[in-house]
Amino acid sequence: MALVLDIPPSTNLGSWSGLREAVAAWLDRDDLNDRIPDFIRLAEARFRREIVRTEQETIVSLPGTLPSDFDSARAVYLTDAPTIALTQISPAELRGRYSGPGTGPPQVYAISAGQIIVGPPPNAAYAATLLYNRKIPALGSSVQTNWLLDDHPDLYLFGTLLHAEFFGWNDDRLPLIKSAVDEAIIEINDAGNRRRYGGGPIAARSPVCEGVRGAYRR
Which of 15, 28, 38, 148 is deepest in the core (most CB within 10 A)? Predict the structure, then answer.
């Protein structure tokens, strides 16, 4: 379905301030200007739930608490064996499996209470590396841009407008803007998969566990 939206004069979408001006121009309603930062934050909440890109990945050393920008774990490696990833399991499974007195080199890990715990209990001091996905940085007056706004200003614009129009109950524009946001998120994730895996077919994954903000899910 073709999207037909009236485009206002050009504005600078390269910063949080420019995004606010662009949203105000598209809305053409002075009574919503003070609420635009809220609409941006609501849009970012959805982006964090649905967008996964290589730009979010970073590496830190362990042991230690999870970084403040931690979103989800990609892998944990022992420094002495960087080609072998520990297997992620649930905290309950880890406790049940290693409740006895035995120790040894870590083989599995779990995320609990904001920390990485390993099993079996280490028989020596081990250094490890955590590869994780960072949260998308929230825009604001002190954080004028991030990688997502730099690369995909259209998503930020339409994502913010979606919440603004929902707030104003503009039923005519809502389906069009929602469709633009949905399509942009799909395209961004597809592009991320191409960048990560190349143009070839992606091998099916075996069931694995992924830690998200200290939680556990399959």
Answer: 148
